[in-house]
Amino acid sequence: MAKQEKIIISKELKKDTLQDENWCATVLSSLLKDPSTHDVTFKTSDGGSVSAHRVIVAAGSPVFHAMLYGNMKESSQKEIKLPTVDTSMFKILLIFMYSGKVEINSDNCLDILEAAYFFNIAALETKSADFIAGMINVENCCSIATVANAKQFNTLLEKCLEFIYINCDKIIENSSFYSLPSEIVLAICQSSSLHVDEIKLFLALVKWQKNQERPISKSGSEKLFNNIRYPMMSVDDLLEKVRPTKMADPVLYTLALEYHHKPNTYDGPPNQLVPRKYLEVAPKKCFVATNITPNTIASSSDGASVTITKLGSSNWDGLCVLQVYPKEQFPVHFTFQIKQTSSDLSGIQLVVRSCLFSSLTADNFRGGVDGSVGHKVEGTIAIGNNNITTTIGGKTLNTTKQSDGIYLCVYLYYQNNSVIVTIN
Questions:
Q1: Is 388 helix (H, G, I), strand (E, B) or coil?
Q2: pLDDT tens readout for residues 89-128
Q3: Shared-domain flag, residues 265 and 288
Q4: Phi and psi dihedrals of 99, rounded to 5?
Q5: Same domain, 226 and 118
Q6: Whole-angstrom Cα distance, residue 52 to residue 153?
Q7: Could you give phi then psi for residue 396, rounded to 5 degrees?
Q8: Which terminus of the chain is more solvent-facing, meaning fewer CB atoms within 10 Å of its CB: N or C?
């Protein structure tokens, strides 16, 4: 045969890596269907018999690898007993190990997760946990979290906790909350990422403890209730709702009351002053400064409105400290607006500022935005390498990183003796 001349496709050498993503799965799946190539048989808990390839099963699960190639007796056996899994579930595991595919539904998802966890098939555990997480809602979240905690399904438990943190205000109103184990309830109380008012969390915790079949030990109860952040409650709530229960630690309770009277002298546990991250800025969490003079803060608790009093000839007509954000909670996002005033005041201006936590003086204010009734003000506070950056109404201002945190402040310029403003 005559030698054929080599055909030149291109004068320049071109390279690429071609891959059929389904090739391996297709080939391995065909091997699973061909018993003549199998070299090991598994006897399942319901008396079934399933054969497969020792090397492929070992590669798909560290547990099977130790069993088939380690120092266990199964390493020399061709027939292996599996007393913890039935035939249908083991076939689901095999199909996943051979092809990376799994037929999952709301009926078998927990069983698949349990089997994947037991045999340490990480990819299948993640996929089944993600599937279950997609079905989590307020009604079933606590039940799923309880199962995940009992069986140590950590991936699923983390997803449940994340859902609980964000929807905590609704979760604690559902009866399933009272069946949660103490470990999960403690995690909730310790979290700084809750969307819930502190007083509601406290009352839910009181009701949870009363609903337990076995009495909670004194130390266990103290551990739970000491993670409630009492200074974040109003004085009225402390006096009318917390004190009657006798569940709050007397020292923490007294410190919380003193904090509302003299916030700058607070010397209690620092974590008590850390706001829950998802807690929106609300009037009941305001510290209202009235009759102030420059370089000083006179704070008092308020409810649905903020009373700001003019200071004679001072440039500061009034100051309302809305919230304190410690550095550990950055980044934070805030939004609020003036809903109404005590009268139709066309000349009123709302000026939003951020200033250093360590000192509140006129010199610390940098930038801000003007507002009016109905005007919404939004902003963020974030920490960088060299400073704390506050963005309010699209304007960015920087402060040093030396402070412990940032005050978000509102104050008014209006020449009148007194004006009442409702802030949402």
A1: strand
A2: 999 999 999 999 999 998 999 999 999 999 999 999 989 9
A3: no
A4: -125, -15
A5: no
A6: 28
A7: -105, 135
A8: N
Question: Are 341 and 389 in the same domain?
Answer: yes
How far apart, in whole angstroms, are the C-alpha atoms of residue 55 and residue 65? 8
- Residue pair 386/401 in contact (Cβ under 8 Å)? The answer is yes
Distance of CA 13 to the CA centre of its chain: 53
Residue 335's pLDDT band (cuts 50, 70, 90): low
| Domain extent for 230 | 163-273
User: Which residues are CB-neighbours of 349 under 8 A, at least 6 positions away?
Assistant: 370, 371, 372, 412, 413, 414
CA angle centred on 126, ends 88 and 115, rounded to 5°? 30
Question: What three-state secondary structure class fits 175?
Answer: helix
Asked if 405 and 353 touch (Cβ cutoff 8 Å), the reply is no
Return d(Cα 410, Cα 35) in angstroms, integer: 76
Give the Cα separation of 401 and 327 in Å (integer). 9
The contacts of residue 328 (CB under 8 Å, 6+ apart) are 192, 274
Please check whether residues 74 and 113 belong to one and the same domain: yes
Q: For the chain, what is the domain count?
A: 3
What percent of the chain is helix, strand and coil (3-state, nearest 5)? 40, 20, 40
Enumerate the H helices of 83-217 as residue ranges: 87-99, 109-118, 122-133, 141-150, 154-166, 168-171, 182-190, 198-210
Q: Are 245 and 224 in contact (CB under 8 A)?
A: no
Task: Residue 257: name the closest of 301, 224, 217, 214 by CA.
Answer: 301
**Would 149 be classed as within a structural domain?**
no
Do 290 and 396 fall into the same domain?
yes
Give me 279's structure tokens: 């807690």
**pLDDT tens-place string over residues 137-184:** 999 999 999 999 998 898 899 989 988 988 898 999 999 999 999 999
Question: Residue 276: which of 329, 330, 203, 355 has the closest Cα?
Answer: 329
